[in-house]
Amino acid sequence: MSLLTDFEIENFRCFDTFKMHNIKRINLIGGMNNAGKTALLEALFLSNGINESSVGYIKYALRGEKAISEYQLAITLWYSLFYNRRIDQFIKLKSTLSTKNTKEAYARTFGNIHVNLIDKTVRDVSALTTVADTLEKGTNLYVAYYFNGKSSNTFVLNEINNSNANYSASDILTIGINLGGFIQGKYMNNILFIPAGIKINGKELAEKYDAAKFKGQAHKLLSALQLIEPTIVNVDMLNLGETALYVTRQNEQFPSPLSTYGDAITKVALYVLLIINNPNSILLLDEVENGIHYTNQPKFWAWLFDLAKEFDVQIFATTHSREMIEAYAQTAIEKGMEAEAGYYELYRSPTTNQVKNHQIAVDTIPFQLERNKPIRGEQE
Description:
The protein is an alpha+beta fold. Helix content is 31%, strand content 28%.
């Protein structure tokens, strides 16, 4: 899989301009509250495709925001994505993917509730379909159109057709619909976003286990769970009124639901199964320390490093926790995987209040922690 090695953001959430370079396979992002850690994961998630579904997912499923009317759904779905509600400028998300021999850059650019037709701006679909102007080669078109007053889709067409042919506005609208909206084909592999407060569904977890078992990889889940709880001797999917995962411990005759073992066990199970079932993907983990006791964090990172490398998965995780950062660095050093680990400190500039990042060499983190150096966005 190509690894994401550079990422740039303009005009998105709390980011005016933001650049992240030299990205590794296993990336940990630290910072204080409101430093932009979750927003960075959202930008990474949307960089693979922006439409109502993906934007709605981060706003409603991840952040728990609610739209109380169709008007709010149509308007505020997009507005809060723009830095300082600066909707007169476009959001830009640029990714650079690299392999051993190649490097390719891709950009997502999108705007809100307007159409650029050469030098004209059209505010609604009725005006769009009556505009007689044609779009010349190389023109960028940004469209948000409505159906019964509700935002129905958003799409962008860059360098239209790359030919000498011209298209009318109504032709472009049809092309946009046929393309399935904004997404013009994913250029990166699957991106999975696991929010901080996720409620893990037992049935869905069991289905993921079934998929891993079909691939002959279910034993990896047991091995991971045993790192957190060594007394577990078996894990399996049972249907006792409802399909769910059950685990059996030493000296116990009957299995118990996995959900009764607490957040750490269920979270580890989810992460393991997502990696096994989604090779060559990108995994975004918000507030990765939640539910995992600090004594288990080195073990947690050990298997996460191993699985990510085995299944060719790239990971971006956020944390507030000093212990989680320390465990991450120690694991990378002990495994000799410093070259595959990147730690990024997010902070706000004291002069401009802009969100910045500082990459800290993983092998220096223990030294800095011992001397109480700030590595989580704190001011010295």
